[in-house]
């Protein structure tokens, strides 16, 4: 009779990340970038316009930042991204609803966008 080897212990399985956690983190980082603040200073309940003072130009900057992180958003008009979004959390939920996202670029700025990239969302 051959001795039985003990079974290899199965490593614990990490819980799946909350599907909306990544878009929330990304939106917080991009809003912070537009405002020149730290993401840690922001909370999902903050109103984009009333609490943070985000204006139309800042919304374009925010959309461009989100497009760099989620390239598929380039094909989504600004009005569709902002549909029903009053708070940071609303915007993160909207971004999550527009997914699923197969690619999320890392935070940080890349080469500046050409001027046409800033004009295109205005004509849509």
Structure characterization notes:
It is a single chain. The protein has a domain at 21-105: ACP-like (Non-ribosomal Peptide Synthetase Peptidyl Carrier Protein, Chain A), CATH 1.10.1200.10. It is 44% helix and 0% strand. The protein has helices spanning 21-35, 56-69, 78-82, 88-98, 115-123. Helix 1 (21-35) crosses helix 2 (56-69) and helix 1 crosses helix 4.
Secondary-structure map with pairings?
Elements: H1 21-35, H2 56-69, H3 78-82, H4 88-98, H5 115-123
Helix pairs in contact: 1-2, 1-4
List keywords for this structure.
124 residues; mainly alpha; Non-ribosomal Peptide Synthetase Peptidyl Carrier Protein, Chain A; 44% helix
Number of helices: 5
CATH topology annotation of the domain at 21-105: Non-ribosomal Peptide Synthetase Peptidyl Carrier Protein, Chain A
The total of beta strands comes to 0
CATH class of the domain at 21-105: Mainly Alpha
Q: On the 0-100 scale, what is the average pLDDT?
A: 80
The percent range for strand residues is under 5%
Supply the CATH superfamily name of the domain at 21-105. ACP-like
Which architecture of the domain at 21-105 does the CATH hierarchy give at level 2?
Answer: Orthogonal Bundle
Q: Are there runs of 5+ residues with pLDDT below 50, and where?
A: 109-121
Q: Could you state the order of secondary-structure elements as H and E?
A: HHHHH
Secondary-structure-derived class: mainly alpha
Compute the gyration radius: what is it? 20 Å
Domain Carrier: 18-99
Protein name: Carrier domain-containing protein
Biased composition (Pro residues): 1-18
Region (Disordered): 1-21
